[in-house]
Amino acid sequence: MADALIFATLNGLVTGMLLFMLASGVTLIFSMMGVLNFAHASFYMLGAYFAFAISQQIGFWPALLLAPMLVGVLGALVERYGLRQVHKSGQVAELVFTFGLAFLIEEAVQLFWGRATQDFRSPAALDFALFTLFGQDFPAWKGVMLCISVSIFIGLYFVLTRTRTGIIIQAAITHPQAVANLGHNVPRLFMVVFGAGSALAGLAGVIAGPVLTTFPGMASVLGSIVFVIVVIGGLGSLTGALVASLLIGLLQSWAIASGLGMADLLALLGVSFPPDHALRDLWRLTLPQVAPLLPYLLLVLILIFRPSGLFGKRES
Amino acid sequence: MLEVMDLQAWYGKSHVLRGVTLRVGEGEIVSLLGRNGAGRSTTMKALMGELQVSGSALFRGQQILGLPSHEIAMRGIGCVPEHREIFPGLTVRQNLLLGIKPGQKASRWSLEDMFRLFPALGERADVPGGVLSGGEQQMLCICRALMGDPALLLVDEPTEGLAPQVVERVAQLLVEIASKGVAILLVEQKLGIALRISRRVYVMGRGQIVHEGTPAALLESDAVRREWLQV
Ligand SMILES: Nc1ncnc2c1ncn2[C@@H]1O[C@H](COP(=O)(O)OP(=O)(O)O)[C@@H](O)[C@H]1O
Ligand SMILES: [Mg+2]
After folding, report:
1. Which of A26, A181, B54, B158 is the most exposed place for a label (fewest CB within 10 A)?
2. Bridge partner residues of A136 (DSSP)
3. Considering the domain B2-228 in this protein, what is its CATH number?
4. Do residues B77 and B62 touch, judged by C-beta distance below 8 A?
5. Looking at the complex, does the CB of residue B162 fall below 8 Å from at least one CB of chain A?
6. pLDDT digit string (tens) for B132-157?
């Protein structure tokens, strides 16, 4: 039991921090520009595909660096020549634009790489167990994923709180006009933040692609969970995004590892059903089967009991 | 220094400024007076590039209408908006440092100058701006704009909601700023400090300039005061 719990926790952390790499970008972009970027996970997918293509030419490690940079530049261009123009037509137009972009990217990926899953693997040099505990292996690549995502988190925190650009970003989140009136180029700042957010999403794609499989549906699979996280954490709250990312990552991972069935849970509550009960299919469900539903279940509960999210400020 | 001619401005479809013409000379304090809703803040926003506008505004001989806000600030116009828009989550020091423009070299004003001028800001340099009192926030907002070394400062109702001694302190500060050669366009509702420290005054009503002259002339003109200023 203890070994399962430790592994589930480690896996949950890996997933949670990965989700935060996307959720942080969505959150920053939303709180600065007021745009809910539905195409954010598409940049994550592009990161994986770009890295796959580059790694076939010049190897994985250069791809780890180049793919996110490419995605970042693409994101910056999208902001500069797409979103900035659409912004003049209002928020609905912006929302539709990001939706359209997500579909466009998905179609483009299928056009270039086809519908099949790509054989994108983590470097062979890392195909070993980082450690073995209670007879279970923890793959080195997951360790690398965790290191990269935690470093990104620390780096993001440092940039936002300790650098001048970060402080300008913080100020622009609440008072963009006042920041512009002090001579800071706020439109360019928006472009940089959008580009950096896209690059982070791209990096997440590079490190997750080999584990979560690289296929044209990967954006929508992860994208919907990222939006759940952003809402649960509270739209615009970075702390909220972090907590919700870890919460979802860990909950899912624990649920999968627990192997408990509904019957066990109900038994805990002192309820039992006869085996031929009409609802027997329901109580034969196991937690691992329900795990993919958990984020959405949590979303519904949060929206009912705390609509502004865990750390969100209620809109006035 | 600033020559505004027939400035018009819109919020979406609503036409708010209907031809504002005014002038601010080098190192001058000029007041823009008027009742609530006269269009004084809108004039400031229009000059800072925040609105859809037409007309002309020459700053040091160059057209600034149509430029983005940060470009206008870089040309040397500082702005202290109404409602004291400090950055509440950032410390007093961070607020002030954000006033320094990208690539700015020398400035008439340093952080130390600000702390000497307002010991209260120095003592609380590392607390979040949001916890300061209203008067301190006002000072912080003015000082933040000064850090960028503007040649012209637009100040919107700096005395609103402040106690009389604090209002006095604001007046002293504005005079001191002007004495360093910074021109000031001061928006006020009450005549109080505006008449005392300005060289010239404009009165606005319904999006237009309805009177211009010296403070003394305005004091004598009961009709203008009754029609456009008294509430
Ligand atoms: N954001 C806005 N949208 C639409 N109308 C506005 C807005 N702000 C101000 N107005 C209108 O513009 C007019 C002038 O307002 P304002 O410039 O704030 O006046 P003042 O600063 O002189 O009190 C008022 O009629 C006000 O209702
Ligand atoms: Mg006003």
Report:
1. B54
2. A133
3. 3.40.50.300
4. no
5. no
6. 999 899 999 999 999 999 999 999 99
**Alpha-helix residue ranges (DSSP H) falling in chain B:** 40-47, 69-75, 92-98, 111-117, 119-123, 134-147, 164-179, 192-197, 215-220, 222-224
Query: Distance, CA B157 to ligand 2 centroid (Å)?
Result: 7
Mean pLDDT calculated for residue range A169-183: 94
The Cα-based distances of B50 to A10, A22, B10, B68 in angstroms read 50, 32, 10, 8
* Alpha carbon distance B220, B205 (integer Å): 19
pLDDT for residue A1? 65
B15 touches ligand 1 (CB under 6 Å) = no
CA A96 to chain centre: 21
* Token representation of residue A222: 């992860």
* B99 near A CB under 8 A: yes
d(CA A296, CA A285): 17
DSSP structural state of residue B67 = S
Helix (H) or strand (E) holding B187: strand B183-188
* Per-residue pLDDT at B202: 96
Alpha carbon distance B213, B190 (integer Å): 16
CB pairs under 8 A between A and B: 61
